[in-house]
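Fold it.
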Amino acid sequence: MINDLLKGNRRFVETVFERERPYFAELSKAQHPTVLWIGCSDSRVPVNTITQTRPGEIFVHRNVANIVAGADWNLSAVLEFSINHLNIPDIVICGHYGCGGILALDNTSEHDQYVPIWLNSAREAAHRVDGRLLTASEPLSAVQRHRLVVEENVSLQMEHLLAYPFVARAVDAGKLAVHGWVYDMDTGCINVQASRPRRPRSE
């Protein structure tokens, strides 16, 4: 597979890069993305493919289960750089149905040491869904429950994101909007879950 990656790069250079050389020359000078994408590391959710965007248009941070953890220095730096230096106006948190991280909330392997700790920042999503299901008139299948937890996790991570003081200030100042999406691998469609739009600036 490693050799295939290198062969793929050569094909890229000979075709796409050569055909769009002026575009890539401009990209080499500076980047001006307009969206920060916080998504899952899942290999089946390639950001530029499912959004049909070009290199340079989306600033990307990915991790297991698209989690926004308050103690994650990696993400904290990404957020700070996005808002303070790239002046990105929109952040998307995108989950996806069939997410292995969300499935692992119920089936953590005894051999995993770090995954369960990481998923602590998503467990509240499952608790919220299960709490609502206690009063549901009809039981849901495991697949239906999973989809609800995926959706709730996106909302939960939006809450975590807005708990960052400098993120909240940017939203309140009308400089930033936060969006929650879910990608459906069965249809290829992105479903909008929630949005915290930029507030109109006062005159």
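The mean pLDDT is 94.
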